[in-house]
Amino acid sequence: MNTFFNIHGGIHPEEEKHLSNPGTVLDAGLPQSLVLPLSQHIGKPSSLCVKPGDYVLGGQLLAEADGMVSVPLHAPTSGTVIAIEPRPVPHPSALDNLCLELACDGEDRWIEYRGCEDWRTETPESLISRISAAGIAGMGGAGFPTAVKLMARERLPLTTLIINGTECEPYITADDTLMQVDAAGIVEGAQILARILAVEDILLAVEDNKPAALAAMRKAAETAGEHCKVMTFPTKYPSGGEKQLIEILTGQQVPAGGLPADLGIVCQNPGTAVAARDAVCHGKPLTDRIVTLTGRALMRPGNYRTRLGTPIEHLLTVAGFDPSQNRRLIHGGPMMGFALESAAVPIVKTTNCILVPTEQELPTPPDAQACIRCGLCAEACPASLLPQQLYWYARAKDQEQLERHHLADCIECGACSWVCPSHIPLVQYYRAAKGMIRESKAEKVRSDRSRDRFEAREARLEQEAIAREAQRAARRAAAEKKAAAGGADDPVAAAIARAKAKKESAGNEESGS
Amino acid sequence: MLTLLQSDPLLAALLALLGLGLGFGGILGYASVRFKTEGNPLVDQINQLLPQTQCGQCGHPGCKPYATAIAEGGAINKCPPGGQETIDALADLLDVEPLTLDAEHGEEKEPNVAYIREDECIGCTKCIQACPVDAILGAAKLMHTVIADECTGCDLCVEPCPVDCIDMLPRKGGIEHWRWELPEPSENKNNIIATDREAA
Q: DSSP assignment, residue B76?
């Protein structure tokens, strides 16, 4: 066994991973229509390049990246674009967002795509552009555009690539399955990513509750040489958090407010590695992913290869959903996921799990009670924060203290809420507080700019007034000079005479008409 | 002189104090000229807290003038765009009692952004002149439009428009502005002991 380090806190919830039978990939089939949100990633939404009525082939570009931090979107099958309108999307707000609806024609015809001959001879730039063109966004859950993350190499010297196959959240087995069925693909993808990042070492991290995946990864890693190592460590939630995993593997902590790149490390999800391999070696865009459909309200839980945009309703039918058993659908896992309001929302690039529990399995949380200051949350926090203090400051909306207690380092893993004997929804407080801080910072920037613009305008108006005054003074001086030079002619008397004459002539005209 | 001082300690003490007073007074006087603070720093501090909408709802022609008025002892509850949050921050800064918003000056509402219905615009430039932050683009007899990112939502352009083609739309709609709400504190519900819950 390799060496590993321990992290502070963590919890051991029921794993429930056996439910979804990791290691077998089932086919989710082709629904009648796919709903593709234009924003499935962090950054600007993709900008459309098709219109309603267009016929598209599988793999065809539907929307291109809009700016640096954005990704393109491709058609997951052939069919006709029938609508472009706001639809419910997987988001905790349950609000609608712009989506494209593609009516599948059932023929599933694809464009021809071609990868590069040999990625070992390609430049990192051309590899990045292939990954960027394939529309890959981090598939572990956050959805940060992978190509942008890979550009970290330009800013900081990097040494290590970590493929994060920890998958510490209960129920989810999508990465576990992928590691079992396509370990070679993950290793090759990792080698491609390592070449782009110009790093030597590749660490493949797998928790010890996945022996089959571990064996498959070990076997695949043997072919990749000595710089590619499989690392394993005891199961604990949330070991798969990026910063937690780095501490477990290296003993180093990512500095507060920093990125893993500050330690010379980049983390990627196994799904992202495979998608990168497919993009580089086959030219295949990201149009499907493995989704864990699990929970005891499903008759056929499992890991389904699902086209992006597949409505969850369709998946529930495929997996044998029993509506009498279930009261809520959860996007993601039981710890960090959020409840969905509607089953019409589609699968997106970041959907790793749809959890359909029975009420018995995952009861509705009871009402929160008062904090009894037991301190269990501080013991459980994997980021060594003080959840109780953060809770009080979040309630008081004390932004200064929240920042001083490093709220930004909270990874929202939910370990504190899980141990809380008073059932206080602590993470929701932190999410709200983070939103509040972000908003007030944005407002501050806005108001500073407004102040600058207001002051600039005031200055401009003042300048204009001075200029006008100067002009008037100059005219007056010129007139006086002229009057002095002309002698007897008084300009005022002349003006009055002129006005009088004008009035008279106007009066005459009026009486004339 | 020395003998006189030695013989009369009272006079010596008086002279010493006088000397010290003159010396330190001189230093203070010099410092007050040399390190004079330009303007009133309190005005800037207050101005930092105001929302910079420049809407004039407080009765002053902009946020800076209102900040000046507050520094001179004016009421702190006349700013509807800032709302209760700004009033609390001002009360904190000035160490006075936080008040509630003075309803005479308007009520707190979500921030807006002006939107010109462009095909109805006649190009009169009246809104451009009214905009306190130069956020409207356009020229005489040509269509105008609002730079949405710069608009403070002050409403000042709505009134002068002769054809009423300016709408005030909410600035924070949509999914990208959504944020989590703070949960309702548990103490507000009657569930401290088990029988409370049964009663409810």
A: S
Residue in A closest to B44 by C-alpha: A451
Q: Which CATH architecture has domain B41-105?
A: Orthogonal Bundle (1.10)
pLDDT-wise least confident of A31-35, A97-101, A155-159, B111-115: A155-159
DSSP letter assigned to residue A143: -
CA distance A441 to A422: 32
d(CA A109, CA A139): 25
CATH class of the domain whose range is A365-504: mainly alpha
> Residue A439 — φ and ψ, nearest 5°?
-65, -45
Type and span of the H or E element at B103: none
Going from the C-alpha of A460 to that of each of A106, A249, A464, A466, B51, the distances in angstroms are: 64, 60, 6, 10, 22
B38-96 confidence digits (pLDDT tens): 777 888 889 989 989 888 888 998 899 999 999 988 888 889 988 888 898 899 888 88
Q: Answer whether A171's CB lies under 8 Å from A16's CB.
A: yes
A399 vs B: CB within 8 A: no
CA A366 to centroid of chain Cα atoms: 30
Q: Three-class SS of residue A35?
A: strand
Q: How many CB atoms lie under 10 A from the CB of residue A268? A: 27
Per CB-CB distance under 8 Å, the chain B contacts of A429 are 182-183
Candidate CATH numbers 1.10.620.20, 3.30.870.10, 3.40.50.300, 3.40.50.11540; the one for domain A17-29+119-318: 3.40.50.11540
Cβ separation A369–B191 shorter than 8 A: yes
Q: At what angle do helices A491-512 and A426-486 cross, to 10 degrees?
A: 100
Partner-chain residue, chosen from A370, A397, A434, that has the shortest CB–CB distance to B186: A370
CATH domain B112-172 topology: Alpha-Beta Plaits (3.30.70)
Closest by Cα among A257, A199, A267 to A228? A199
How far apart are alpha carbons A65 and A39 in whole angstroms?
A: 10
Q: pLDDT by residue (tens digit) across A428-438?
A: 999 999 999 99
d(CA A447, CA A441): 10
Distance between CA atoms of residues A448 and B168, nearest Å: 22
Predicted-assembly ipTM surpassing the 0.85 threshold: no
> Hey, is A478 helix, strand or coil?
helix
